[in-house]
What we know:
This protein is of the alpha/beta class. The protein has a single domain (2-127), classed as Rossmann fold.
Amino acid sequence: MIFITGGIGQGKRDHAKKVYGIDKSKMTDGRVFDINTSKTVECIYDYHELIRRLIINGIDPEEYTKEFVRKNAEAVVIMNEVGCGIIPAEKEERLYREAVGRCGCILAGRAEKVIRIICGIPIVLKEKK
């Protein structure tokens, strides 16, 4: 698995398309991915939005992410960094950010390669050789 992270609008999807040759039609949006399916994906973006949906539906995002990684070992997973900046006053938003961070740790831990994109520039954080 390849895990790509970074802030919003930093070029994560463009990097996946260019470097890994993933066609836009093969990219799955985390906002609409069927959380009840065992379908595998080539690439999923906005995984942080999938986590939000899992929380809303009462599904443990960490357990779901572990299973997702097991089923999608060859996928490219793209997720925004959401933990930077001002700490939200709303408890739900703090719990959401915590869940995204923990799931990011799971994804990074299991990934063969972890890339952070800043201003369109990829920085390889981890690469198993």
